[in-house]
Each structure stands twice: as structure tokens, then as C-alpha cells.
Amino acid sequence: MSTKLIFKLLAAILLASVFIPVNAALEAGEAKLIVREAIQVAKELRASESYYDQYAGAGILVDIGDKDSLQFLVDGLADNDWVLMRSAIDTLLTVRHPYGLDVLYRYAEQTTDAIFMKFLSESLASRPRDDLSEFLIRLVESDDEWVKKHAMQSLASSEYPGKERLMTNLGNDYNQDPLTRAYGYYGLIGTESESYAVGELLSITDNWGVDALEVLAVALGQHDSPETRSRLKELRAATTYKVQIAAMASQAGFGNEEATQTLISIIANGKGLDPSVAAASLRRMNPESVSSITAELLQCCELTSDTGTRLLESWENIDADPSALYKWGFNHKNPDIKMQTVWLAGVRGDGEYATAIADMLDDKDSGIRAMASWAIIRLYGEKYAPSLSV
Asked: What is the DSSP string of 76-144?
């Protein structure tokens, strides 16, 4: 969710744990009522003295066509406060209003702000956009290695015309740096050139560098064969921990019990950034593996705020039943986890939780209110907001 980081800054109050039941999808009259309430919450946030609340409210109102809020976010792209600039970028990348992406693209075409380009490329790497492929292709030619790296990460994970040809050319271009070439071959997974790409990936050696080896470990997890399993076993013995975790996650996705249990242990008890990195790796596993690992984590462990939100985030596109995860998250005392659960219901379109989410529209925490408002608009705004006098 684009405003997730903003909400985390606002979340300071631990909420009491109460049971929230699963609700059936709302009837039209009730849906209209809570959409109206959600819009009112967004307007109040937009009028707040807090910039963070203002950005949260603007992002919600843009989705129902509010032009003033769109202009507010556009102005934020040039803000000298980098936190607010990043918030504007992330929000415009995720709003459903078509003008949101258009104005972001136009600004990116004309700005010379290096920080803006770093933030934009990094955001696109975490949430790839198929419709920005032409722009990303140009970023691959950037002299800024950070921008180039994240542009390649996004291109490798997106779908667009000419992808197979582009990724093949980049992978086979010896004038490119090793990381770009590794992403090029990774981008061929799932295409007709997958077998060729796997062969090239398996030829990557340690002298390609740590970042390329991490890409290799992730890519091999998408192609199960004796050769990829053997190489992943070697990568588990790498000297760099992030390569080890990437390889471990790929092995877990193939059903390796030792790797699965070690990954669960890291998520539950690891130090530093390791738990959140391990939790985020679930997003690239098959539904059965994700469901099994999630069930064990919910039963065995007390997850931290960051690890819990990463776990929820990883379920965005998992084709499996998230009901146990919802029950855990909606009833959690940690506001970050609770907000990320609301986000998950909104982004997945799980309207059966709308009543539970609507109950949070008057929460005393502005972050909770904002996320609830966003989720209600995401679930019902497109259908009911245009018919309301707002």
C-alpha cells in the first residue's frame, strides 16, 4: 500500500484485541452508507494539520476523482522533504485514477532531480508496473547504478510487449554489468526462452558479485530441476547471508523440509533485517508452501511489527485462503499489523470483511482510520462513490 510507511509513523497506540467475525458482503444500502463515511474520514484527514494525514487523505480522494487532491500529490513530487516526496510517489503509483500515473510519468520525463529518480525506481521495483515499461527501459541506460538496478528488477518482474527480446539482449550483452545480465536472464523465466535462461543462470559464478548471486538464487526458485536444486544447495553455503536466505527460500518453495524449518526459525527469531527479508520471500513461493509456512508461524510464534507486516504483504497475490491470517491480523494488538491486515483485505478485494473494516473508521488512531477509509473505497468506491453527493 502506498501510504503504509506514513501510517507506521502515525501508529503509536496499541489497540485492544477483540474478536472480529467474518461478515458477508454488504447490501447496496449499507455499502453506500459506509462509502459515505469513508469519504468523510478522507476529507477530515486531508484537512488535518499533519502532512502525513494530508497525504493519506489525498491518496484516498484521488481514487474518487478529486482534482485538488491530485494536484496536492503532484506538488509533493517536488517537495524538499524526502519523506513527503516518497509518499507522493508511492501514492500516485498505487491510485486507481488514470491521471495518477499520467502525471507521475510526465513529471519523471521533465525532472532532473536525482533523488526523485532513485525513489521512483526503488518504488517500481517493489511494485512493478507493466504500463511503465518504456520509461523503465530508458532508466536501464542511467549512469546511476541504484536507478539501473531497480529498473532492471522491475522490468524482470513485469509483463510487456517485447520483454523476451529485451531480456535476452540484456542477458547476452557482455558490455552490461553482471547484475544487469543476471536480471536479464531472470526476466526470461516464464517465457519460451526459460530453458535457455536457466542454462545461462546456472553458468553464473561467484565473480559476478553478491547481488547477481542473490538474483540467481531467486530465479532458480522459479524452475524446479535437479540442476537448480543442486546449485541452490551450493548457494546455501555462500559467505553472504542475503544469498543464503534467497537460496533457502527457493528451496523451501520446492518443499525442502530443512530449508522450510530454518526459514520459519529466521522469521520468528532472527536478528536485524533477516526476519523481514525472510518473510518477504514468501511472496514468490507457491500457494501450498506459503499457506503451510504461514499456518505454522501463526501457531508457534510471536511476530514483530515489521515481520508481521511483511508476512501480510506477501499474501497480496497468493491464490490461497487467507482467512486464518485475517483472523490473526484483525485481532492483533499491534496497530501496524492490524493496519496491514486491513490493507490486505482491500488490495485483495475481500469484501466480506467490510463491516469489520468500517468499524475502524472512527478509531482514535488516524492511521487506522486512514487505512480503513482506503480499504472501503477500494472495495466499494468505484461502484457507489459516483452516485453520492460528496
From this structure: HTT-SSHHHHHHHHHHHHH-SSHHHHHHHHHHHHH---HHHHHHHHHHHHHS--GGGHHHHHHHTT-S-
Cα 211 from Cα 202, distance rounded (Å): 15
How many residues are present in the chain?
390
Q: Rounded to a whole number, what is the largest CA-CA distance in the chain? A: 63
pLDDT tens digits, 239-261: 999 999 999 999 999 999 999 99
Q: Which residues of 68-89 are buried (b: 16+ CB within 10 A; e: fewer)?
A: ebbebbbebbeeeeeebbbbbb
Residues 309, 279: Cα–Cα separation, whole Å: 9
Q: What is the pTM of this model?
A: 0.86
Taking the C-alpha atoms of residue 331 and residue 56, their distance in angstroms, rounded to an integer, is 23
The stretches in the chain having pLDDT less than 50 are 1-23, 389-390
95/145 Cα distance (integer angstroms): 28
